[in-house]
Amino acid sequence: LAAGELPETVRIRRGDDLQEMAADLGAAVATFRGAVLEIRERAGQARADLQAVRADPGAASAARLQELDANLAGIEATLKTFRL
User: In terms of DSSP H, where are the helices of 1-84?
Assistant: First the structure.
């Protein structure tokens, strides 16, 4: 986790001091992993929307900018879950 790896499951060895917290730790990692995946997806879509606006700055730009705004709002909403 400290190196930035987000496993799908957290494995704790029997007898490990963290065994009691394994379920909570697993749930926390799953929540964080899901958020990172959602942010990556929304950021990729926002990047594609921005490229489309740059490529065609015509009348369709307003709709593309709304999509871009929606993706950025989704990223902000996902990040609100976490307190730093």
Answer: 22-55, 61-80
